[in-house]
Q: What sequence folds into this?
């Protein structure tokens, strides 16, 4: 795969050092998804020649991106764009909120939005088996990178959540707008090989696993708010926990 050339504007009248101008514009290309994880990075000689700057200037810019974890140098393989992981804190929040907090660009594609029955979900929500629940399936992106395939089931009192709302905000934000605030959850985390559907929507190649997260969230009154079954690209996602011995 040939390296993608990123358009860079060098202002030689600016007091900002040339290497830093270059590093910032290349960093922006990575964080916005123009350069994606695993993409080969243009070698320093080619960049120097194309932008009419010295090789030490390019080398210093690349080192800055390597130090920030945006590029990876591998002997014999050259320089590639690093996998940018989402570090999810172990707390009751949505992936959408986490991406916003980290300055990423959350985007959602709604795959399914339908009301029907699901005995397993109804039992988890402590409802009769024939209760009609709102089932939603979404792919959550950071820029152009797919991070998660998310399935959620909502009880009838929250079945008015719309597809446009879910495309423009996280589920918990949509619920908060309705006065519903999840306050506690039972959550389990695991790992397994991806299903064909997960491979397709999360763009997984080879024998790479997915992280899984199942969550049953409750409001302050102990009433079940939502059930979620999510899968995440393990290469781009990690969960941070703080363990406090009391």
A:
């Amino acid at each position: 795969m040939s390296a993608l050339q990123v358009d860079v504007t060098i202002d030689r009248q600016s007091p900002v050092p040339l290497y830093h101008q270059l590093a910032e514009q290349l960093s922006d290309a990575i964080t916005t998804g123009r350069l994606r994880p695993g993409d080969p990075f243009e070698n320093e000689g080619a960049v120097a020649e194309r932008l009419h700057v010295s090789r030490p200037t390019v080398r210093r810019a690349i080192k800055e991106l390597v130090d920030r974890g945006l590029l990876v140098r591998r002997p014999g393989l050259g320089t590639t764009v690093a996998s940018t992981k989402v570090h999810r804190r172990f707390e009751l929040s949505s992936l959408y909120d986490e991406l916003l907090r980290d300055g990423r660009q959350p985007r959602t594609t709604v795959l399914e939005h339908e009301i029907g029955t699901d005995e397993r979900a109804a039992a988890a929500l402590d409802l009769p088996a024939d209760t009609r629940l709102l089932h939603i399936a979404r792919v959550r992106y950071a820029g152009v990178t797919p991070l998660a395939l998310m399935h959620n089931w909502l009880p009838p009192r929250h079945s008015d959540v719309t597809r446009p709302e879910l495309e423009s905000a996280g589920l918990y934000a949509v619920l908060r707008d309705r006065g519903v605030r999840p306050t506690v959850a039972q959550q389990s985390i695991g790992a397994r090989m991806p299903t064909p559907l997960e491979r397709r929507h999360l763009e997984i190649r080879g024998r790479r696993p997915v992280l899984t997260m199942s969550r049953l969230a409750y409001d302050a009154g102990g009433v079940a708010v939502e059930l979620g079954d999510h899968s995440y690209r393990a290469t781009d996602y990690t969960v941070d926990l703080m363990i406090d011995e009391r």
The helical segments are 18-31, 44-51, 55-67, 95-101, 119-124, 163-168, 171-177, 196-202. The first strand starts at residue 71 and ends at 74. The chain has eight helices and ten strands.
